[in-house]
Design goal:
This protein is an alpha/beta fold. It is built from five helices and ten strands; from the N terminus they run E-E-H-E-E-H-E-E-H-E-H-E-E-E-H. The relative contact order is 0.31.
């Protein structure tokens, strides 16, 4: 079996599952789950809601929702943020991590994510607080990786996935 160099980390949820699995099939890719997780509100540690144990959609309304600009030809199904189809009273799009982090601090912005925070990249100035799911916003994410179908990971790919698993404490 040939070795592959392609490894991609992504999430699948009820919103994007059908589209992503169709893409995986069309592009001869396989999805390997790593973990299931809930949705978290990612924000600056000085945000007025950062000390909460859970945050609801209603509590987020006064604050801008931050999302990554995906480009003119992007699909909602390929967005990095969960609830991308929701309408938020205030939405700001950015195309780089530093801008997103600055907007979190300067405007008390937030984004919705897996809750996995890499302090080595972003420092210890940010918090992930569990999002309170409601019946209409009951979401979870399955995080995993994709590779070419019928190909084995090479040495570096295996080391990468091993380190990801260790980081996630699986």
């Amino acid at each position: 079996m040939p070795r592959t160099r392609l490894v991609g980390i992504l999430y699948v949820n009820e919103f994007n599952k059908r589209v992503l699995y169709k893409l995986f099939s069309t592009m001869d890719l396989e999805f390997e789950p790593l973990m299931d997780c809930g949705v978290y509100v990612y924000m600056w540690k000085g945000h007025p809601l950062a000390g909460r144990t859970r945050i609801s959609m209603e509590e987020l309304e006064p604050y801008p929702c931050l999302s990554f600009e995906q480009g003119a030809d992007s699909s909602l199904y390929l967005a990095e943020e969960i609830f991308v189809g929701n309408e938020f009273p205030q939405t700001i799009k950015a195309n780089d991590r530093a801008t997103m982090l600055n907007l979190m601090v300067g405007l008390n912005g937030f984004t919705l994510c897996s809750g996995i925070i890499c302090e080595e990249l972003n420092g210890d100035e940010y918090r992930a607080v569990p999002f309170s799911n409601t019946e209409e916003n009951n979401q979870s994410m399955e995080i995993g990786y994709i590779t070419r179908k019928n190909q084995l990971l090479g040495k570096i790919g295996n080391i990468y996935i091993k380190n990801i698993r260790q980081y996630l404490m699986l």
